[in-house]
Design goal:
The chain is an alpha+beta fold. It contains 2 helices and 9 strands, in the order ααβββββββββ. Strands 1, 2, 3, 4, 5, 6, 7, 8 and 9 form a 9-stranded mixed β-sheet that branches. A hairpin with a 2-residue loop joins β1 and β2. The termini are far apart.
Amino acid sequence: MATTRTHHRMLIAGTMTASLLGLAGCAPDVSERLEDLEAVNLGTNAEVGPVSFDNMLVVTRGEGEPARLMGVLTNFSNETIDVTIADADDSTDVMLLPGQQFAFQENVVVLDTADDRPGARIELTFTVEGETDSAPVPVRNGTLEWLEPYIPAVA
C-alpha cells in the first residue's frame, strides 16, 4: 500500500512539474513587457555609455521661445560623469555622481529657444565621456495640462 501511495505522489509531482514547465514557455518575455512600458512614454529614450536618457522631451509655448528639458538621466557607473545635451543652437552640461538619477522636473534646465513648434521633434545630441549619440525628441506645450507648470515664461 505504501508503494502505491509513493507511486501516486511521484506521478502527481511529475505531472505538476511538467505542467508548470509547459506554462513557463507561455509567459511573455521580460523584455517584451519592458517594451510595452516604454511605449507609454511621452518622450524619447536613449543610452550613451553608462547613462540612460529616459522620457526626454522639451516643453515650450512655441517655436523660438525658451524650452525646458524634461526627462530623467541615470548614471549606471561607479564614476562621476559629465553629460552634455545640445540642440542646434544651445547646450547644457550636467554632472552625474555615481549611481545618480537626475530628474529635469526637479532641476530646471532651460534652452534659450525651441528649434521647432510644439508637436514636432527636434534633434538632441547626448554626449557622455566623449561618446555621442542623437535622437529626435518631442516638443510639447501646455495641451497636456500637467506640463503647463513646466513651460518656461517668455522673457
